[in-house]
Amino acid sequence: AQSVTQPDIHITVSEGASLELRCNYSYGATPYLFWYVQSPGQGLQLLLKYFSGDTLVQGIKGFEAEFKRSQSSFNLRKPSVHWSDAAEYFCAVGAGAGNMLTFGGGTRLMVKP
Amino acid sequence: NAGVTQTPKFQVLKTGQSMTLQCAQDMNHNSMYWYRQDPGMGLRLIYYSASEGTTDKGEVPNGYNVSRLNKREFSLRLESAAPSQTSVYFCASSELGGVTDTQYFGPGTRLTVL
What we know:
The structure holds 2 protein chains of 2 kinds.
Chain A: E1 3-5, E2 10-14, E3 19-21, E4 24-26, E5 32-38, E6 44-50, E7 56-58, E8 64-68, E9 73-78, E10 87-95, E11 100-103, E12 107-112
Parallel strand pairs in A: 2-12
Antiparallel strand pairs in A: 1-4, 3-9, 5-6, 5-10, 7-8, 8-9, 10-11, 10-12
Chain B: E1 4-7, E2 10-13, E3 19-25, E4 31-37, E5 43-49, E6 56-57, E7 65-68, E8 74-78, E9 87-94, E10 104-105, E11 109-113
Parallel strand pairs in B: 2-11
Antiparallel strand pairs in B: 1-3, 3-8, 4-5, 4-9, 5-6, 7-8, 9-10, 9-11
């Protein structure tokens, strides 16, 4: 069965600083990988997804993620964080019937002014 | 176009009470999902419906039942609520249900069972 690990439960960065959120997955076949963002009190919104091809994928709100098969990782990055990026971020792998998503535990991002 | 809507937003139950969480989508999607979110555990799939008329168990189905009422609506029922079911519940939908499909999420229902 697939699994997803997000090693960092909380991360605090200063506004304008760069950001990298880590995600490691375990899955036997080619993974379908997703990053979602959840703002306080809201549902989840898709940031980006990777299925195949170029290992660097661009998403909304200036985010990008890089798939590294050798490291079983799909880390999310942003060059310059804005206060509005404060939220919880979830990495997920899709597999199996019905597009079952397996989520990591989430990383809560706080942004210092 | 409201996307995915859920009612109620908040609910408090006593142990043993029953309730139904409602979910509707207006995107003409085929597949719908119910997840629960618990701190540190991300979202876990309870049940899903790949298409109208079908439902299947997810990772944590015990204590829940679902009904795909029509293409738009997918309800989640707790027959006898337990404190372990205190959680935030999210409904989601996707167009075709394929593994590469984007899932669209509702705003969630925060349920407390006393």
